[in-house]
Amino acid sequence: MCKFCIASGPQIKTSTSPSRRSALGTMGALSLLGMSAVAGIAHAKTPPKPDNVLSPDQALKRLMDGNERYISGQTQNRSFAKTREALVGGQNPYASILSCADSRVSPELCFDEERGDLFVTRVAGNYVTNDILASLEYGVAVLNAPLIMVLGHTRCGAVSATVSALEKQADFPGHIQNIVTALMPAVRAAAAEPHKGTLLQAATLQNIRQNVQRLQEATPILSKAVQAGKVKVVGGLYALETGRIDLVA
Protein backbone atom coordinates (compact mmCIF):
# COMPACT_ATOMS: atom_id res chain seq x y z
CA MET A 1 0.00 0.00 0.00
CA CYS A 2 1.40 3.45 -0.87
CA LYS A 3 2.34 6.02 1.79
CA PHE A 4 -0.44 8.34 0.63
CA CYS A 5 -3.08 5.63 1.10
CA ILE A 6 -1.73 4.82 4.59
CA ALA A 7 -1.65 8.47 5.52
CA SER A 8 -5.05 9.34 4.22
CA GLY A 9 -6.77 6.07 5.08
CA PRO A 10 -8.01 6.98 8.57
CA GLN A 11 -9.46 10.22 7.22
CA ILE A 12 -11.84 8.43 4.85
CA LYS A 13 -15.32 8.14 6.37
CA THR A 14 -17.46 5.17 5.47
CA SER A 15 -20.62 6.52 7.06
CA THR A 16 -23.11 8.66 5.17
CA SER A 17 -24.82 11.71 6.59
CA PRO A 18 -28.57 11.43 7.28
CA SER A 19 -29.39 13.94 4.55
CA ARG A 20 -27.26 12.07 2.02
CA ARG A 21 -28.77 8.72 3.04
CA SER A 22 -32.21 10.20 2.55
CA ALA A 23 -31.30 11.50 -0.88
CA LEU A 24 -29.82 8.18 -1.94
CA GLY A 25 -32.84 6.35 -0.60
CA THR A 26 -35.16 8.55 -2.62
CA MET A 27 -33.10 8.02 -5.76
CA GLY A 28 -33.13 4.26 -5.19
CA ALA A 29 -36.88 4.20 -4.68
CA LEU A 30 -37.47 6.15 -7.87
CA SER A 31 -35.11 3.81 -9.70
CA LEU A 32 -37.02 0.77 -8.43
CA LEU A 33 -40.35 2.32 -9.32
CA GLY A 34 -39.05 3.07 -12.78
CA MET A 35 -41.69 3.55 -15.45
CA SER A 36 -44.53 3.04 -12.95
CA ALA A 37 -43.53 6.18 -11.08
CA VAL A 38 -43.40 8.18 -14.29
CA ALA A 39 -46.76 6.78 -15.35
CA GLY A 40 -48.32 7.80 -12.04
CA ILE A 41 -47.06 11.34 -12.41
CA ALA A 42 -48.22 11.48 -16.03
CA HIS A 43 -51.77 10.47 -15.13
CA ALA A 44 -52.15 12.46 -11.92
CA LYS A 45 -53.74 15.29 -13.89
CA THR A 46 -56.75 15.30 -16.18
CA PRO A 47 -55.81 13.86 -19.60
CA PRO A 48 -55.66 16.46 -22.37
CA LYS A 49 -58.06 14.40 -24.50
CA PRO A 50 -60.65 12.75 -22.18
CA ASP A 51 -62.35 10.99 -25.12
CA ASN A 52 -59.18 8.95 -25.58
CA VAL A 53 -59.58 7.16 -22.23
CA LEU A 54 -60.89 3.84 -23.56
CA SER A 55 -60.82 0.11 -22.95
CA PRO A 56 -58.85 -2.05 -25.43
CA ASP A 57 -62.06 -3.14 -27.20
CA GLN A 58 -63.40 0.41 -27.38
CA ALA A 59 -60.08 1.58 -28.80
CA LEU A 60 -60.13 -1.10 -31.50
CA LYS A 61 -63.71 -0.21 -32.46
CA ARG A 62 -62.79 3.45 -32.73
CA LEU A 63 -59.84 2.61 -35.00
CA MET A 64 -61.96 0.51 -37.33
CA ASP A 65 -64.82 3.03 -37.39
CA GLY A 66 -62.30 5.67 -38.41
CA ASN A 67 -61.08 3.47 -41.24
CA GLU A 68 -64.66 3.08 -42.48
CA ARG A 69 -64.98 6.87 -42.64
CA TYR A 70 -61.69 7.05 -44.51
CA ILE A 71 -62.81 4.48 -47.08
CA SER A 72 -66.16 6.18 -47.66
CA GLY A 73 -64.67 9.65 -47.93
CA GLN A 74 -66.74 10.85 -44.96
CA THR A 75 -63.79 11.97 -42.86
CA GLN A 76 -64.24 14.42 -40.02
CA ASN A 77 -63.46 18.12 -40.33
CA ARG A 78 -60.40 19.07 -38.30
CA SER A 79 -59.54 22.27 -36.48
CA PHE A 80 -55.97 21.76 -35.37
CA ALA A 81 -55.90 25.09 -33.56
CA LYS A 82 -58.44 23.82 -31.01
CA THR A 83 -56.27 20.90 -29.88
CA ARG A 84 -52.91 22.63 -30.00
CA GLU A 85 -53.23 24.26 -26.57
CA ALA A 86 -54.61 21.12 -24.91
CA LEU A 87 -51.69 19.03 -26.13
CA VAL A 88 -48.94 21.39 -25.02
CA GLY A 89 -48.92 19.93 -21.52
CA GLY A 90 -49.12 16.24 -22.40
CA GLN A 91 -50.65 13.47 -24.46
CA ASN A 92 -52.89 10.45 -23.98
CA PRO A 93 -53.21 8.58 -27.28
CA TYR A 94 -55.77 5.78 -27.29
CA ALA A 95 -53.77 3.48 -29.58
CA SER A 96 -50.17 2.77 -30.55
CA ILE A 97 -49.39 1.78 -34.13
CA LEU A 98 -46.38 -0.12 -35.47
CA SER A 99 -46.60 0.79 -39.13
CA CYS A 100 -44.48 0.32 -42.21
CA ALA A 101 -42.59 3.46 -43.22
CA ASP A 102 -44.19 3.32 -46.70
CA SER A 103 -45.30 6.82 -47.72
CA ARG A 104 -48.60 5.45 -49.04
CA VAL A 105 -49.65 4.33 -45.55
CA SER A 106 -50.38 7.17 -43.11
CA PRO A 107 -52.00 5.90 -39.88
CA GLU A 108 -53.52 9.22 -38.82
CA LEU A 109 -55.17 9.51 -42.23
CA CYS A 110 -56.35 5.92 -42.71
CA PHE A 111 -57.91 5.89 -39.23
CA ASP A 112 -59.30 9.42 -39.63
CA GLU A 113 -57.64 10.72 -36.49
CA GLU A 114 -55.79 13.86 -35.49
CA ARG A 115 -52.81 14.85 -33.38
CA GLY A 116 -52.72 13.32 -29.93
CA ASP A 117 -54.84 10.29 -30.84
CA LEU A 118 -52.27 7.80 -32.12
CA PHE A 119 -48.77 7.00 -30.87
CA VAL A 120 -47.09 5.94 -34.12
CA THR A 121 -43.82 4.07 -34.63
CA ARG A 122 -42.65 3.30 -38.16
CA VAL A 123 -40.01 1.19 -39.83
CA ALA A 124 -39.87 -0.35 -43.31
CA GLY A 125 -41.41 -3.82 -42.94
CA ASN A 126 -43.33 -3.01 -39.71
CA TYR A 127 -41.27 -5.30 -37.47
CA VAL A 128 -40.19 -5.01 -33.85
CA THR A 129 -36.74 -3.58 -33.14
CA ASN A 130 -35.33 -2.75 -29.71
CA ASP A 131 -36.08 0.94 -30.21
CA ILE A 132 -39.57 0.24 -31.50
CA LEU A 133 -40.23 -2.01 -28.52
CA ALA A 134 -39.00 0.64 -26.09
CA SER A 135 -41.26 3.22 -27.72
CA LEU A 136 -44.30 0.96 -27.50
CA GLU A 137 -43.48 0.17 -23.88
CA TYR A 138 -43.46 3.91 -23.23
CA GLY A 139 -46.86 4.15 -24.91
CA VAL A 140 -48.27 1.55 -22.52
CA ALA A 141 -46.43 2.29 -19.26
CA VAL A 142 -46.41 6.08 -19.40
CA LEU A 143 -49.10 7.15 -21.87
CA ASN A 144 -51.51 4.35 -20.89
CA ALA A 145 -52.48 3.48 -24.46
CA PRO A 146 -54.76 0.39 -24.27
CA LEU A 147 -54.23 -0.88 -27.82
CA ILE A 148 -51.30 -1.71 -30.11
CA MET A 149 -51.78 -2.51 -33.79
CA VAL A 150 -49.09 -3.95 -36.04
CA LEU A 151 -50.08 -2.43 -39.38
CA GLY A 152 -48.75 -4.06 -42.53
CA HIS A 153 -49.88 -3.40 -46.09
CA THR A 154 -50.21 -5.00 -49.49
CA ARG A 155 -47.34 -4.81 -51.99
CA CYS A 156 -44.82 -4.07 -49.23
CA GLY A 157 -41.41 -3.36 -50.75
CA ALA A 158 -39.49 -4.58 -47.70
CA VAL A 159 -41.26 -7.95 -47.68
CA SER A 160 -40.94 -8.17 -51.47
CA ALA A 161 -37.19 -7.62 -51.22
CA THR A 162 -36.96 -10.40 -48.65
CA VAL A 163 -38.89 -12.76 -50.91
CA SER A 164 -36.39 -11.96 -53.68
CA ALA A 165 -33.52 -12.66 -51.31
CA LEU A 166 -34.99 -16.08 -50.55
CA GLU A 167 -35.98 -17.07 -54.08
CA LYS A 168 -33.24 -15.36 -56.13
CA GLN A 169 -30.48 -14.87 -53.56
CA ALA A 170 -30.75 -11.12 -54.13
CA ASP A 171 -28.41 -8.92 -52.11
CA PHE A 172 -28.99 -5.29 -51.13
CA PRO A 173 -26.62 -2.38 -50.46
CA GLY A 174 -25.87 -0.59 -47.24
CA HIS A 175 -28.05 -1.23 -44.22
CA ILE A 176 -31.03 -2.32 -46.32
CA GLN A 177 -29.79 -5.88 -45.88
CA ASN A 178 -30.53 -5.54 -42.14
CA ILE A 179 -34.24 -5.21 -42.92
CA VAL A 180 -34.15 -8.28 -45.14
CA THR A 181 -32.41 -10.25 -42.39
CA ALA A 182 -35.05 -9.21 -39.86
CA LEU A 183 -37.95 -10.17 -42.14
CA MET A 184 -36.49 -13.44 -43.39
CA PRO A 185 -37.96 -15.65 -40.60
CA ALA A 186 -41.48 -14.60 -41.62
CA VAL A 187 -40.80 -15.23 -45.31
CA ARG A 188 -39.27 -18.63 -44.60
CA ALA A 189 -42.21 -19.59 -42.39
CA ALA A 190 -44.68 -18.56 -45.08
CA ALA A 191 -42.77 -20.47 -47.75
CA ALA A 192 -42.76 -23.63 -45.61
CA GLU A 193 -46.55 -23.72 -45.27
CA PRO A 194 -49.35 -24.14 -47.83
CA HIS A 195 -50.73 -20.72 -48.71
CA LYS A 196 -53.21 -19.07 -50.99
CA GLY A 197 -52.02 -16.44 -53.41
CA THR A 198 -48.40 -15.39 -53.81
CA LEU A 199 -45.56 -15.86 -51.36
CA LEU A 200 -45.46 -12.08 -50.98
CA GLN A 201 -49.06 -12.05 -49.76
CA ALA A 202 -48.52 -14.97 -47.38
CA ALA A 203 -45.26 -13.54 -46.03
CA THR A 204 -46.87 -10.14 -45.42
CA LEU A 205 -49.53 -11.77 -43.23
CA GLN A 206 -46.99 -14.02 -41.52
CA ASN A 207 -44.82 -11.01 -40.69
CA ILE A 208 -47.76 -9.22 -39.07
CA ARG A 209 -48.67 -12.29 -37.01
CA GLN A 210 -45.10 -12.89 -35.84
CA ASN A 211 -44.69 -9.31 -34.66
CA VAL A 212 -48.05 -9.32 -32.90
CA GLN A 213 -46.85 -12.37 -30.99
CA ARG A 214 -43.49 -10.74 -30.19
CA LEU A 215 -45.24 -7.77 -28.65
CA GLN A 216 -47.71 -9.92 -26.72
CA GLU A 217 -44.84 -11.86 -25.18
CA ALA A 218 -42.39 -8.97 -24.71
CA THR A 219 -41.19 -8.74 -21.12
CA PRO A 220 -41.33 -7.06 -18.72
CA ILE A 221 -43.96 -4.45 -19.57
CA LEU A 222 -46.14 -5.54 -22.49
CA SER A 223 -46.67 -9.18 -21.54
CA LYS A 224 -47.88 -8.20 -18.06
CA ALA A 225 -50.24 -5.58 -19.47
CA VAL A 226 -51.64 -8.08 -21.99
CA GLN A 227 -52.13 -10.78 -19.36
CA ALA A 228 -53.89 -8.29 -17.08
CA GLY A 229 -56.29 -7.32 -19.87
CA LYS A 230 -55.11 -3.71 -19.84
CA VAL A 231 -53.67 -3.86 -23.36
CA LYS A 232 -54.65 -5.67 -26.53
CA VAL A 233 -52.22 -6.31 -29.41
CA VAL A 234 -53.74 -6.89 -32.85
CA GLY A 235 -52.64 -7.04 -36.47
CA GLY A 236 -54.00 -5.12 -39.42
CA LEU A 237 -53.48 -5.26 -43.19
CA TYR A 238 -53.90 -2.06 -45.21
CA ALA A 239 -54.95 -2.59 -48.83
CA LEU A 240 -53.31 0.00 -51.06
CA GLU A 241 -56.01 -0.51 -53.67
CA THR A 242 -58.95 0.38 -51.45
CA GLY A 243 -57.60 1.88 -48.22
CA ARG A 244 -59.44 -0.77 -46.20
CA ILE A 245 -57.79 -2.28 -43.15
CA ASP A 246 -58.66 -5.87 -42.29
CA LEU A 247 -57.80 -7.39 -38.95
CA VAL A 248 -55.22 -10.17 -39.10
CA ALA A 249 -55.85 -13.07 -36.71
Average pLDDT reading: 86
CATH topology of the largest domain: Beta-carbonic Anhydrase, Chain A
The gyration radius over C-alpha positions equals 24 Å
Distance between the termini: 68 Å
Question: How many strand units?
Answer: 5
Order of neighbouring strands in the sheet with most strands: 2-1-3-4-5
What is the CATH H-level superfamily of the largest domain? Carbonic anhydrase
Tell me, briefly, the overall form.
globular
Total number of helices? 11
Q: Please name the CATH architecture of the largest domain.
A: 3-Layer(aba) Sandwich
Main sheet characteristics: 5 strands, mixed
Describe the structure.
This protein is an alpha/beta fold. The protein folds into two domains: 16-45; 49-248, Beta-carbonic Anhydrase, Chain A (3-Layer(aba) Sandwich), CATH 3.40.1050. It contains eleven helices and five strands, in the order H-H-H-H-H-E-H-E-H-E-H-H-H-H-E-E. Strand 4 and strand 5 (245-248) form a beta hairpin. Helix 8 (157-168) crosses helix 9 (176-191) and helix 9 (176-191) crosses helix 10. The longest helix is centred in the C-terminal third of the chain and has 19 residues, at 199-217.
